[in-house]
Design a protein that fits this description.
It contains 6 helices and no strands. By secondary structure, the chain is mainly alpha-helical. It folds into 2 domains: about 70 residues, no CATH class; about 110 residues, no CATH class.
């Protein structure tokens, strides 16, 4: 309930009380009321009090309410939240190829973990760890391309990076085939030739 409404109700109640008290006092002290019945006096008192006291009290209370509301300090409006859009990162053709190599590295590591434990798996694990280290060379190639400001996909540096991403994918496929064979033949002698081939391929990936 607002300030004006509360003041109006307060004025109504105050007006009724004051006028009612005055009217009752006049009725009790008047000598001309003997010719009227008690019920008539009560009804006239209630009616007069409601009309005069209620209306006048309500008007005065409403006016006071408007004055009080105008004197109250205005609450500052809360600013609407501004949704700042996230700045879009510029497209980086170098990072795209580096991430392709990194994804192949993660998939190779996951494939090695699925192979049954054996000496052949330990060897394959070392190959996977070395593959992860080779990523530093891939990142170096990408950094070189950025430093040269190359934006042409036919640039030799980008072509070198593109070939690295392709070789990483091929290496991932080879590891998958060797890992599958190790499920049936986990012996080191059975997997030795395949593991040696994989190990020789590592320096050529980047």
């Amino acid at each position: 309930m607002g300030v004006v409404a509360r003041s109006a109700l307060t004025g109504l109640a105050t007006g009724v009380l004051i006028v009612g008290a005055l009217t009752t006092f006049v009725q009790l002290t008047s000598t001309t009321n003997d010719k009227y019945s008690f019920a008539t006096l009560v009804l006239s008192t209630v009616f007069f009090t409601a009309v005069v006291g209620g209306v006048s009290g309500t008007i005065v209370g409403t006016g006071i309410g408007f004055i009080r509301r105008s004197l109250r300090p205005k609450q500052p409006k809360q600013p609407k939240p501004v949704h700042v859009p996230f700045p879009q990162q510029p497209y980086d053709m170098w990072s795209e190829q580096v991430e392709r190599c990194a994804e192949s590295t993660r998939r190779v590591a996951a494939a090695v973990q699925a192979v049954p434990k054996s000496p052949a798996k330990d060897w394959l694990q070392r190959i996977s760890e070395q593959l992860t280290k080779e990523l530093d060379d891939v990142r170096g190639i990408a950094q070189l391309g950025r430093a040269l400001g190359a934006v042409d996909r036919q640039h030799p540096v980008y072509q070198r990076l593109l070939k690295a991403a392709h070789d990483y994918k091929q290496f991932e496929n080879e590891v998958g085939r060797v890992a599958l064979q190790m499920f049936d033949h986990p012996e080191l002698d059975a997997a030795r030739t395949h593991l040696e081939v994989l190990e020789k391929q590592l320096p050529q990936l980047s």
